[in-house]
Design goal:
Blueprint: H1 14-21, H2 30-47, H3 51-69, H4 72-87, H5 93-97
Helix pairs in contact: 2-3, 3-4
Length: about 100
């Protein structure tokens, strides 16, 4: 088993940070809301000129896709880890790699 990688710092513009923040909340319709978040990240990635923001949205798009397909228990656990990543300006990818993959 390989040791876990340390979380990668992930920076972005204040606007990009605010756009992601709005989607890191529990929702009654997770598939629909997290699909909307992935679509939103994709659209912004296509139109931003900032390479840093493109990378930021690519990482968070992956996180929202994982939330979209998780069951309720996994989703709450993952959302808690992702909020921590967000607050500490870390990439969510490490949390996705360490997420349990059981059904």
């Amino acid at each position: 088993m390989t040791p876990a990688r340390p979380p990668e710092p992930l920076t972005a513009s204040p606007r990009a940070h605010d756009l992601v923040a709005q989607f890191l909340v529990p929702t009654d319709s997770p598939f629909k809301e997290y699909l909307r978040a992935t679509d939103y990240c994709t659209a912004v990635m296509l139109y931003t000129e900032s390479a840093t923001d493109r990378k930021y949205f690519a990482h968070w798009r992956a996180a929202f896709a994982a939330l979209m397909v998780s069951n309720a228990t996994e989703r709450m656990r993952l959302l808690k880890r992702l909020r921590s990543d967000f607050k500490q300006d870390r990439s969510p990818l490490t949390s996705l790699e360490s997420a349990p993959r059981g059904r």
